[in-house]
Amino acid sequence: MSRTEGKEEATGNTPGVVFINCNALIDGVFRPDTSILISQGQITSINIDSKSNMDSLRDSGVLTSNAEIDLVDLENKYLIPGLVDLQVNGGGGVGFQNATSSDDFLKAVKAHINCGTTSLLPTITTNSIEKMLASIDLAYSSHLFSPNTVLGIHLEGPLLSPKRKGIHNEKYLLKELPSEVLDAIEDVLVKSRNDANPFKVLITLAPEIAGIPLIEKLVKLGVKVSFGHSEASFEEAEVGFGERADLVTHLFNATEPISGRSPGLVTSALMRDDVNVSLVCDGNHLHDEIIKLVLKLKSYERVILVSDAMPIVGTQLDQIEFDNLVLMRSENGLVVSHGEDGEKVQDQGKLAGSSTSLLECALYLTKSLLIPFERAIEMASLNPAHYLQLRETLGSIQKGGVADFLVVDSSLHLERVYKDGRELSVET
Length: 428
Hints:
By secondary structure, the chain is of the alpha/beta class. The protein has helices at residues 54-59, 102-113, 129-145, 179-192, 207-210, 212-221, 234-242, 264-271, 288-297, 358-369, 373-379, 382-387, and strands at 2-10, 17-26, 29-39, 42-47, 63-73, 78-81, 83-88, 90-91, 94-95, 117-125, 152-156, 200-205, 224-227, 247-248, 276-279, 303-305, 319-322, 325-330, 333-339, 405-408, 414-419, 422-424.
């Protein structure tokens, strides 16, 4: 990939970067020979299907003379939008719920940016009221520092089914959302309501535990409500979705399985056109044929890839502590090894989130299931951005959008990450 510098000026605002000869994912299609201009972290111009250099950009009127630009020739490598992850437990050795400072929080965020996830919802699993409140505060302060990166917070719990809790700490499971937590959620939503990039709150709950009145209240506050870790019947799920809950967290994992006489939450989610589903496609959480089934029954636009990444992502560690458990890499994925003091625990051997990045999940679909690369990427970028009502700025390469890009070579290897139009280091 060649890079040159020139003294040129764009029409209007001066661009910081001009990308030329990109094979860019635009409107669901890879467009070779595309040029893209960036100014102040935003996409200001897109020219499709025209081989570009400084002379051609000048001749077309895109550039006039007399100012600095950085010209980046991608040599028709893939240019895809930065990925958007709705479920990230941590990274770089730091769990979001264990972070005690903004520096800790941002260390975990940076580990995922380095892997191609440029926007995310830090996820807090079932924990004490004090931990939840502290995490909301840290997420909000991190959002103020970088609103297009830390989009808000995902509270996964505490209103979950004990039978379908996964590795969530049972002693913190509740049947009612604490008033302090509800007040904290309302506070950050109200404070950011008129911001250009409002703080987003996603809550995963079991509808049969939370009840319809709470779901109604959360939706009215502007919270995105997802069902998960649930034993809900088909009928309970239908009523909940009718109140505008519109997502199922990691479908098929930690939910009551389908049977001939008990269709349950999964069937309701698959049958409804107004419900999104998130999938952890790391090669361990779901059988390949289950993924194919979901993609056959649901439109691509309603399927959202999530990593469910644990703090081990972005490290070379073989094991890591998380919420009083030691998690280790294995041939079956990231699993519970033992308690932090070495004792055996009830959840030993269970899957415990993932050790994969969101980009790795998307690439798994393309390499193992032969899902078109552009569709896999949109399920990890455009779809989650649309779900969070951020489609105008994130998740796609579009004029006026945030200049978050990934450069991927023909072997689907991540070469470069650009955040707000600036190149960041990528560890390989």
